[in-house]
Amino acid sequence: ELSMVFQFEHINLDKQNGKRKWDLKDLDPQELHRTFSKWQIELGGCGWNSLFWNNHDLPRIISRWGDDQEYRTISGKMLAIYLHFMQGTPYIYQGEE
Description:
Elements: E1 4-5, H1 29-43, E2 48-51, H2 61-65, H3 72-84, E3 89-90
Parallel strand pairs: 1-2, 2-3
């Protein structure tokens, strides 16, 4: 019986159909919140989510959804807090710390 999942729905929120994976559209923060909320509710009591922003195939999250110029530190903290306050196991990949 499996109880832990890796879901990639949140990673596809800024992809554009027919475009390369590096040609991204602006993220809708409300859509991100709805996606994570859905998974928190649907897995509640019967599963466990893997929480992550990056992997070796994705651009770094601060450059992708934060402001890596003027607000690099604040963006990083905000994204880390958002991820770590959810139910699940957070994954931090080398280079994200």
